[in-house]
Request: fold
Amino acid sequence: MRTPLALLAVCMLSLSIGTGVLAAQEAKAEESTRLAKLLSGEPPETIQDLKAMQERFRSLATKLVPCTVGLRVGGAQGSGVIISKDGYVLTAGHVSGQAGRTVTVILHNGKQLKGKTLGADLELDAGLIKIEDKGEWPYAEMGTSKDLGRGQWCVCIGHPGGYRPERSAPVRVGRILDNRANGIRTDCMLVGGDSGGPLFDTQGKIIGINSRIGASARSNLHAPIDAFTKGWDRMVKSETWGGNQRSSGPTRGGPWLGVTSDPDADNAKIGKVSENSPAAKAGIKAGDIITRFDGKNINSFQDLSRLVKQKKPGDEVEVVVLREDQSVKLKLKLEKYEGNN
Reply:
Protein backbone atom coordinates (compact mmCIF):
# COMPACT_ATOMS: atom_id res chain seq x y z
CA MET A 1 0.00 0.00 0.00
CA ARG A 2 1.37 3.41 -1.02
CA THR A 3 1.90 6.00 1.66
CA PRO A 4 0.53 9.54 1.20
CA LEU A 5 4.11 10.72 0.66
CA ALA A 6 4.62 8.21 -2.18
CA LEU A 7 1.33 9.21 -3.79
CA LEU A 8 2.33 12.86 -3.59
CA ALA A 9 5.66 12.06 -5.28
CA VAL A 10 3.86 10.23 -8.10
CA CYS A 11 1.51 13.16 -8.59
CA MET A 12 4.38 15.62 -8.64
CA LEU A 13 6.26 13.49 -11.19
CA SER A 14 3.20 13.21 -13.43
CA LEU A 15 2.64 16.94 -13.18
CA SER A 16 6.28 17.58 -14.05
CA ILE A 17 6.16 15.29 -17.11
CA GLY A 18 2.90 16.82 -18.25
CA THR A 19 4.30 20.33 -17.88
CA GLY A 20 7.42 19.35 -19.81
CA VAL A 21 5.42 17.85 -22.68
CA LEU A 22 3.19 20.92 -22.81
CA ALA A 23 6.22 23.23 -22.83
CA ALA A 24 7.80 21.24 -25.67
CA GLN A 25 4.57 21.43 -27.68
CA GLU A 26 4.30 25.17 -27.09
CA ALA A 27 7.96 25.67 -28.10
CA LYS A 28 7.42 23.67 -31.31
CA ALA A 29 4.29 25.66 -32.13
CA GLU A 30 6.18 28.90 -31.49
CA GLU A 31 9.00 27.76 -33.80
CA SER A 32 6.48 26.89 -36.52
CA THR A 33 4.79 30.29 -36.18
CA ARG A 34 8.15 32.05 -36.31
CA LEU A 35 9.19 30.13 -39.44
CA ALA A 36 5.92 31.01 -41.16
CA LYS A 37 6.56 34.71 -40.47
CA LEU A 38 10.10 34.44 -41.80
CA LEU A 39 9.01 32.73 -45.00
CA SER A 40 6.32 35.36 -45.60
CA GLY A 41 8.99 38.06 -45.64
CA GLU A 42 9.85 39.01 -42.05
CA PRO A 43 13.65 39.47 -41.80
CA PRO A 44 15.63 36.84 -39.83
CA GLU A 45 17.10 38.12 -36.56
CA THR A 46 18.99 35.18 -35.04
CA ILE A 47 21.17 32.24 -36.00
CA GLN A 48 18.21 30.01 -35.13
CA ASP A 49 16.08 31.88 -37.68
CA LEU A 50 18.66 31.31 -40.40
CA LYS A 51 19.08 27.64 -39.51
CA ALA A 52 15.31 27.08 -39.62
CA MET A 53 15.09 28.71 -43.06
CA GLN A 54 18.08 26.74 -44.32
CA GLU A 55 16.52 23.48 -43.21
CA ARG A 56 13.25 24.31 -44.96
CA PHE A 57 14.96 25.20 -48.25
CA ARG A 58 17.17 22.11 -48.08
CA SER A 59 14.12 19.93 -47.56
CA LEU A 60 12.34 21.58 -50.50
CA ALA A 61 15.35 21.09 -52.79
CA THR A 62 15.50 17.37 -52.01
CA LYS A 63 11.84 17.01 -52.89
CA LEU A 64 11.62 19.30 -55.93
CA VAL A 65 14.84 18.79 -57.92
CA PRO A 66 13.67 15.35 -59.18
CA CYS A 67 10.56 17.01 -60.67
CA THR A 68 12.64 19.52 -62.66
CA VAL A 69 13.68 18.43 -66.16
CA GLY A 70 15.92 19.58 -68.96
CA LEU A 71 14.38 20.08 -72.40
CA ARG A 72 15.75 19.99 -75.94
CA VAL A 73 13.44 21.41 -78.58
CA GLY A 74 15.03 21.68 -82.01
CA GLY A 75 18.45 23.21 -81.45
CA ALA A 76 17.45 25.03 -78.26
CA GLN A 77 17.67 23.96 -74.63
CA GLY A 78 15.48 24.91 -71.72
CA SER A 79 13.93 23.60 -68.52
CA GLY A 80 10.55 22.38 -67.35
CA VAL A 81 8.72 20.82 -64.42
CA ILE A 82 6.58 17.66 -64.35
CA ILE A 83 3.15 18.30 -62.82
CA SER A 84 1.46 14.88 -63.12
CA LYS A 85 2.56 11.28 -62.74
CA ASP A 86 1.56 10.58 -66.37
CA GLY A 87 3.99 13.22 -67.62
CA TYR A 88 2.52 16.65 -68.29
CA VAL A 89 5.35 19.21 -68.22
CA LEU A 90 5.06 22.97 -67.77
CA THR A 91 7.61 25.20 -69.48
CA ALA A 92 7.92 28.66 -71.01
CA GLY A 93 5.96 29.35 -74.18
CA HIS A 94 9.07 30.50 -76.03
CA VAL A 95 10.73 27.15 -75.17
CA SER A 96 7.87 24.92 -76.38
CA GLY A 97 6.83 27.13 -79.30
CA GLN A 98 4.27 25.71 -81.70
CA ALA A 99 2.33 22.49 -81.02
CA GLY A 100 3.45 19.14 -82.39
CA ARG A 101 7.22 19.57 -82.06
CA THR A 102 9.39 16.68 -80.86
CA VAL A 103 11.00 17.21 -77.47
CA THR A 104 13.73 15.37 -75.58
CA VAL A 105 12.88 15.43 -71.87
CA ILE A 106 15.87 14.79 -69.60
CA LEU A 107 15.12 13.59 -66.07
CA HIS A 108 17.25 14.54 -63.05
CA ASN A 109 19.11 11.20 -63.30
CA GLY A 110 20.00 11.73 -66.97
CA LYS A 111 17.37 9.42 -68.43
CA GLN A 112 16.05 10.77 -71.74
CA LEU A 113 12.40 10.54 -72.71
CA LYS A 114 10.47 11.44 -75.84
CA GLY A 115 7.92 14.22 -75.58
CA LYS A 116 5.70 16.43 -77.73
CA THR A 117 4.82 20.10 -77.44
CA LEU A 118 1.15 20.90 -76.89
CA GLY A 119 -0.40 24.36 -76.62
CA ALA A 120 0.99 27.69 -75.44
CA ASP A 121 -0.05 31.16 -74.34
CA LEU A 122 2.74 33.14 -76.00
CA GLU A 123 1.48 36.42 -74.56
CA LEU A 124 2.17 35.24 -70.99
CA ASP A 125 4.97 32.85 -72.08
CA ALA A 126 3.26 29.70 -70.81
CA GLY A 127 3.76 26.38 -72.61
CA LEU A 128 2.81 22.72 -72.14
CA ILE A 129 4.59 19.49 -73.10
CA LYS A 130 3.56 15.84 -72.71
CA ILE A 131 5.98 12.96 -72.12
CA GLU A 132 5.08 10.20 -74.58
CA ASP A 133 7.04 7.35 -72.97
CA LYS A 134 4.96 5.19 -70.68
CA GLY A 135 5.62 5.34 -66.96
CA GLU A 136 4.96 7.23 -63.75
CA TRP A 137 7.14 10.26 -63.10
CA PRO A 138 7.98 12.38 -60.04
CA TYR A 139 5.88 15.52 -60.07
CA ALA A 140 5.20 18.74 -58.19
CA GLU A 141 1.84 20.30 -57.35
CA MET A 142 0.55 23.47 -58.94
CA GLY A 143 -0.27 26.29 -56.55
CA THR A 144 -1.77 29.74 -57.18
CA SER A 145 -0.08 33.04 -57.90
CA LYS A 146 -2.70 35.79 -57.56
CA ASP A 147 -2.24 36.31 -53.81
CA LEU A 148 1.57 36.29 -53.68
CA GLY A 149 2.97 39.29 -51.84
CA ARG A 150 6.11 41.36 -52.10
CA GLY A 151 8.92 40.02 -49.91
CA GLN A 152 7.74 36.40 -49.76
CA TRP A 153 10.53 33.86 -50.12
CA CYS A 154 10.56 31.56 -53.13
CA VAL A 155 12.69 28.83 -54.72
CA CYS A 156 13.78 28.79 -58.36
CA ILE A 157 15.17 25.69 -60.11
CA GLY A 158 16.39 25.17 -63.67
CA HIS A 159 19.23 23.96 -65.88
CA PRO A 160 21.35 27.03 -66.72
CA GLY A 161 23.34 26.36 -69.87
CA GLY A 162 21.28 23.21 -70.47
CA TYR A 163 21.23 19.86 -68.67
CA ARG A 164 24.63 18.72 -67.42
CA PRO A 165 25.15 15.16 -66.11
CA GLU A 166 27.84 16.18 -63.62
CA ARG A 167 25.47 18.29 -61.51
CA SER A 168 21.90 18.39 -60.27
CA ALA A 169 19.66 21.29 -61.25
CA PRO A 170 20.94 24.38 -59.38
CA VAL A 171 18.58 25.70 -56.71
CA ARG A 172 18.30 29.44 -56.07
CA VAL A 173 16.48 31.12 -53.22
CA GLY A 174 15.05 34.61 -53.53
CA ARG A 175 12.10 36.85 -52.81
CA ILE A 176 9.16 38.19 -54.76
CA LEU A 177 9.67 41.78 -55.89
CA ASP A 178 6.39 42.29 -57.72
CA ASN A 179 3.32 40.25 -58.63
CA ARG A 180 1.07 41.23 -61.53
CA ALA A 181 -1.36 39.39 -63.77
CA ASN A 182 1.17 39.31 -66.62
CA GLY A 183 4.15 38.12 -64.59
CA ILE A 184 5.92 37.61 -61.28
CA ARG A 185 9.21 39.41 -60.73
CA THR A 186 11.78 37.99 -58.29
CA ASP A 187 15.43 38.50 -57.40
CA CYS A 188 16.24 34.85 -58.14
CA MET A 189 19.25 34.72 -60.47
CA LEU A 190 18.42 33.44 -63.98
CA VAL A 191 20.71 32.67 -66.91
CA GLY A 192 20.21 31.13 -70.36
CA GLY A 193 18.78 27.61 -70.09
CA ASP A 194 16.74 28.38 -66.97
CA SER A 195 13.75 29.35 -69.13
CA GLY A 196 10.81 27.07 -68.42
CA GLY A 197 12.09 25.97 -65.02
CA PRO A 198 9.79 26.16 -61.98
CA LEU A 199 9.35 28.84 -59.33
CA PHE A 200 8.06 27.39 -56.04
CA ASP A 201 6.60 28.85 -52.89
CA THR A 202 7.90 27.75 -49.49
CA GLN A 203 5.31 24.96 -49.33
CA GLY A 204 6.79 23.38 -52.45
CA LYS A 205 3.97 24.34 -54.82
CA ILE A 206 4.59 25.80 -58.29
CA ILE A 207 3.74 29.50 -58.43
CA GLY A 208 5.45 30.43 -61.70
CA ILE A 209 7.65 29.38 -64.62
CA ASN A 210 10.97 31.07 -65.45
CA SER A 211 10.28 33.37 -68.39
CA ARG A 212 13.01 35.91 -69.08
CA ILE A 213 15.99 37.72 -67.68
CA GLY A 214 15.39 41.30 -66.62
CA ALA A 215 17.50 44.41 -67.12
CA SER A 216 19.21 43.61 -63.83
CA ALA A 217 20.55 40.18 -62.93
CA ARG A 218 18.59 40.42 -59.68
CA SER A 219 15.23 41.25 -61.24
CA ASN A 220 13.80 38.49 -63.42
CA LEU A 221 10.37 37.57 -64.74
CA HIS A 222 8.30 34.38 -64.32
CA ALA A 223 5.05 33.41 -66.03
CA PRO A 224 2.34 33.17 -63.32
CA ILE A 225 1.03 29.68 -62.63
CA ASP A 226 -2.53 31.03 -62.86
CA ALA A 227 -1.94 31.50 -66.61
CA PHE A 228 -1.50 27.72 -66.92
CA THR A 229 -4.59 27.02 -64.85
CA LYS A 230 -6.71 29.43 -66.87
CA GLY A 231 -5.49 28.19 -70.24
CA TRP A 232 -5.16 24.51 -69.36
CA ASP A 233 -7.99 23.16 -71.53
CA ARG A 234 -6.74 25.08 -74.56
CA MET A 235 -3.15 23.97 -74.04
CA VAL A 236 -4.12 20.31 -73.71
CA LYS A 237 -5.95 20.66 -77.05
CA SER A 238 -2.69 21.99 -78.58
CA GLU A 239 -3.98 25.52 -79.13
CA THR A 240 -1.37 28.27 -79.41
CA TRP A 241 -2.38 31.90 -78.96
CA GLY A 242 -1.04 35.31 -77.98
CA GLY A 243 1.90 37.40 -79.17
CA ASN A 244 5.17 36.20 -80.65
CA GLN A 245 8.06 37.19 -78.44
CA ARG A 246 10.62 37.09 -81.24
CA SER A 247 8.70 39.16 -83.79
CA SER A 248 10.08 42.58 -84.66
CA GLY A 249 8.11 43.04 -87.91
CA PRO A 250 8.82 46.60 -89.11
CA THR A 251 6.03 47.92 -91.31
CA ARG A 252 6.79 49.57 -94.67
CA GLY A 253 6.77 53.32 -94.08
CA GLY A 254 6.95 52.85 -90.31
CA PRO A 255 9.82 53.42 -87.87
CA TRP A 256 12.97 51.32 -88.34
CA LEU A 257 15.67 50.55 -85.79
CA GLY A 258 17.61 47.88 -87.69
CA VAL A 259 18.25 45.08 -85.21
CA THR A 260 17.26 41.44 -84.81
CA SER A 261 17.12 39.43 -81.59
CA ASP A 262 19.52 36.78 -80.36
CA PRO A 263 17.31 33.64 -80.70
CA ASP A 264 18.92 31.99 -77.66
CA ALA A 265 18.38 34.94 -75.29
CA ASP A 266 15.40 35.57 -73.04
CA ASN A 267 15.97 39.33 -72.89
CA ALA A 268 16.45 42.05 -75.53
CA LYS A 269 19.90 40.84 -76.54
CA ILE A 270 20.85 41.92 -80.05
CA GLY A 271 21.79 39.17 -82.49
CA LYS A 272 22.50 41.30 -85.55
CA VAL A 273 22.69 44.99 -86.43
CA SER A 274 21.87 45.98 -90.03
CA GLU A 275 24.54 47.95 -91.83
CA ASN A 276 23.88 51.74 -92.01
CA SER A 277 20.81 51.32 -89.79
CA PRO A 278 19.85 53.81 -87.04
CA ALA A 279 21.12 51.26 -84.50
CA ALA A 280 24.48 50.94 -86.26
CA LYS A 281 24.86 54.71 -86.57
CA ALA A 282 24.15 55.08 -82.84
CA GLY A 283 26.81 52.52 -81.92
CA ILE A 284 24.63 49.55 -80.95
CA LYS A 285 26.51 46.28 -81.39
CA ALA A 286 25.63 42.60 -81.66
CA GLY A 287 25.68 41.17 -78.14
CA ASP A 288 24.39 44.36 -76.52
CA ILE A 289 21.35 43.95 -74.27
CA ILE A 290 18.91 46.85 -74.60
CA THR A 291 17.59 47.66 -71.11
CA ARG A 292 15.87 51.02 -71.70
CA PHE A 293 14.29 52.68 -74.73
CA ASP A 294 13.00 56.24 -74.61
CA GLY A 295 12.97 56.19 -70.80
CA LYS A 296 11.09 52.88 -70.50
CA ASN A 297 12.45 49.60 -69.14
CA ILE A 298 12.97 46.78 -71.64
CA ASN A 299 12.67 43.19 -70.43
CA SER A 300 12.33 41.36 -73.74
CA PHE A 301 12.74 41.84 -77.48
CA GLN A 302 8.94 41.98 -77.64
CA ASP A 303 9.02 45.05 -75.36
CA LEU A 304 11.56 46.72 -77.65
CA SER A 305 9.56 45.94 -80.80
CA ARG A 306 6.38 47.32 -79.29
CA LEU A 307 7.98 50.58 -78.19
CA VAL A 308 9.68 51.13 -81.56
CA LYS A 309 6.33 50.72 -83.33
CA GLN A 310 4.85 53.43 -81.11
CA LYS A 311 7.31 55.99 -82.50
CA LYS A 312 7.52 57.75 -85.89
CA PRO A 313 10.35 57.92 -88.45
CA GLY A 314 12.58 60.82 -87.50
CA ASP A 315 11.96 60.51 -83.75
CA GLU A 316 15.09 60.79 -81.63
CA VAL A 317 15.30 58.53 -78.58
CA GLU A 318 17.80 57.62 -75.89
CA VAL A 319 18.71 53.96 -75.54
CA VAL A 320 20.56 52.25 -72.69
CA VAL A 321 22.43 49.03 -73.45
CA LEU A 322 24.22 46.59 -71.19
CA ARG A 323 27.65 45.87 -72.65
CA GLU A 324 30.22 43.76 -70.76
CA ASP A 325 28.40 44.50 -67.45
CA GLN A 326 28.51 48.25 -68.13
CA SER A 327 25.49 50.44 -68.89
CA VAL A 328 26.03 52.61 -71.98
CA LYS A 329 23.72 55.46 -73.00
CA LEU A 330 23.26 56.07 -76.73
CA LYS A 331 21.13 58.43 -78.79
CA LEU A 332 19.61 57.44 -82.11
CA LYS A 333 17.24 58.71 -84.76
CA LEU A 334 14.67 56.27 -86.14
CA GLU A 335 14.33 56.07 -89.93
CA LYS A 336 11.55 55.06 -92.30
CA TYR A 337 11.38 51.38 -93.24
CA GLU A 338 11.25 51.04 -97.04
CA GLY A 339 11.07 47.25 -97.18
CA ASN A 340 14.63 46.77 -98.41
CA ASN A 341 16.63 48.60 -95.72
